Hints:
By secondary structure, the protein is an alpha/beta fold. The chain contains nine helices and six strands, in the order H-E-H-E-H-E-E-H-E-H-E-H-H-H-H.
Amino acid sequence: KFFRIVRIQADILERESLQSAMVDRDLVIHLAALDAAVPATEQAFFETNVQGTWNVLEAAEKTGVQRAVLCSSVAALGIGDDTLPDYLPIDESHPCRPQQAYGLSKQVAETVGRCFARRGRIEVVCLRPAFVVFPELVIATAQALAIQDGVEWSRDLPQENHALNEPLTATRSYIAPEDAADCFVATAKASLSSSWQLYFAIAPWTMSHLPTLEKAQAMGIPASAVRDPGRYRALPNASMFSVALAERELCWRARLPFESLLGAALKGYNA
């Protein structure tokens, strides 16, 4: 499949401008939202991320768009140091229990997507990326991992402190921006078995060198909750999330380990 990308400025909270922007379009990838790192009120997170998603899908449905790809987040699950997963590896069927407005906004936006898919006039696919490690965040993330997980990197980190604008994910899950982009492209091209699909868009490894089962034990996840311990014996820093569904149905797999992102960031930093 080939795509012609058209850039049209529209506000996701203005329904009329959205509908005009989608005339004669076949596909919409909905990325416009307030990210967790944005200093916004709970009301703003909810109104923008939920109402905005409704408006996008409503406009897409009315104008005959065939497929919409939504960007959700693993935050919809609500997993953290105080809210542990029921089992490892975490798959798409794991229950959602968000406690913050951002995660709740993503969970509700997913429900909005399911609603439009059930109507039968548009296909809706939802991706849940983990922490997207943009180049400007890599060094700060590596420094935080060195402190919190005792990670010793094969490369020397800068002496000055680089502040990270959000806490490290408890699961240490991540995705490189290039891999995330590839996943959205794969989702746009894929043949779907139903009008609604949900996938994790996550690297199959963690950001940390700390073995995943050690991190799980430190979080308080019992060994009995690990459904596939052989996975973590074979690859000690395998992700707490399963990406098997995306690999199987989208033919997509992340390519960039965190160490390669750090090498590129340090090369640019020292240039």
